[in-house]
Specification:
single chain; 364 residues; alpha/beta; Rossmann fold; 3 domains; twelve-stranded mixed beta sheet; 20% strand
Length: 364
């Protein structure tokens, strides 16, 4: 099912019998998801499952909803800020839907790692379902602070700081847990956060932003930081980069990310006119085939003189699949912290201060 159809059904925008039936089934399943979530968390609370600490501070970058909140560009920005503070960050991630690798001796990377490798080229990044092992490997790589990508629900690795990202375009996942909505946890889970980051604040009104903050304040009074994602240029599948000023109104746009609407709004602001003919959405973390690109190429030839535009997450997966005569460009963006950059750094610094460890003789 098309991701846009899923959103229309969950949001209630679709009112047909099929949509009503799916919502009813999802509503029936929602309490079972909540039961499983509570059981999982209670196993850690009562000590039946262990939490593990590592020898350096750990910062989790996560969210309460499925789909994209802009964690990748925000993580890249945070890496730069930590480096400016004299730290050596490393990134630990699960590696969800990693791409297949022709090298049997290498660990396949997913799209997020490929993008972060481009945006943070000297920052070690380990992908492993076992985030504790990933963190320990990063320490061997000389990292002195670990960033856990998508770590808010990962309880096994202890963390010093929990940062929670909220997407301003769809902040609370239709106010339902999976599968009826997009929430991984109830909103009262915000109580665990040390700082809230509201992303894409440029895509909503000030009244809407105030409404989001009012809802957040029902659960926590930790600092709130505002972030938007600024376009910086275009990069094509051959690695060539041009400035953002060279935007064209004619293109076929596509993506397979968690929040396609945020990407669409960004393109619209650049003057791209999108409709059902030149806007195509694939599932999040979609593994593109040659047939996918051939079909996209045909649409691009028909409607946009052979020009495709997409996200960097998508481009890194399809560079070798672009047909001849087609130009495919990714929109390059960076996270801009509108307010609270100092608060962000101070919050992390205040939480990562640890007492020096004693050796076997009791010496520090």
């Amino acid at each position: 099912m098309n991701p846009r159809d899923i959103d229309d059904i969950l949001s209630g925008r679709r009112r047909d019998l099929f949509a009503h039936s799916l919502r009813a089934g999802a509503t029936f399943a929602e309490p079972f998801y909540r039961l499983g979530l509570n059981l999982h968390q209670s196993l850690y609370r009562c000590g039946l499952k262990s939490r593990h600490a590592v020898d350096v501070p750990v910062v989790s970058i996560g969210n309460l909803t499925t789909g994209g909140t802009g964690k990748t560009p925000f993580t890249a920005r945070l890496v730069k800020l930590l480096i400016e503070q004299g730290m050596i960050p490393g990134i630990a991630s699960r590696g969800y839907r990693a791409l297949k690798s022709e090298d049997s001796h290498s660990i396949p990377a997913n799209d997020e790692k490929l993008v972060l490798d481009l945006m943070c080229p000297r920052t070690p990044h380990r992908q492993n379902r076992d985030r504790v092992t990933a963190a320990q490997d990063l320490i061997i790589d000389h990292a002195d602070i670990i960033l856990i990508d998508d770590g808010y629900q990962h309880l096994r690795l202890k963390r010093d700081v929990d940062l929670v990202l909220i997407d301003a375009v769809n902040p609370f996942g239709y106010n339902h847990l999976l599968p009826r909505g997009l929430l991984r946890e109830p909103l009262n889970a915000l109580k665990r956060a040390h700082l809230i980051v509201i992303t894409r604040t440029d895509q909503i009104t000030q009244d809407q932003l105030a409404g989001i903050e009012h809802e957040v304040r029902r659960y926590t009074y930790v600092p709130i930081v505002h972030v938007h994602f600024a376009p910086t240029g275009w990069q094509d599948h051959r690695g060539n980069t041009v400035p953002i000023s060279e935007s064209h109104q004619s293109a076929v746009a596509f993506c397979g990310i968690g929040n396609p609407e945020g990407f669409r709004q960004g393109l619209t602001k650049l003057g791209l006119e999108l409709n059902d003919q030149n806007w195509l959405v694939f599932p999040d973390h979609h593994h593109y085939t040659q047939d996918d690109l051939n079909q996209l190429a045909e649409v691009a030839k028909e409607h946009a003189n052979g020009r495709l535009v997409t996200t960097l997450k998508d481009l890194v997966k399809i560079r070798d699949l672009i047909p001849q005569g087609i130009t495919c460009q990714a929109l390059l963006i960076e996270a801009v912290i509108d307010s609270g950059e100092d608060v962000l750094i101070k919050t992390i610094q205040s939480k990562i201060k640890r007492e020096p460890q004693m050796d076997a003789d009791g010496r520090r």
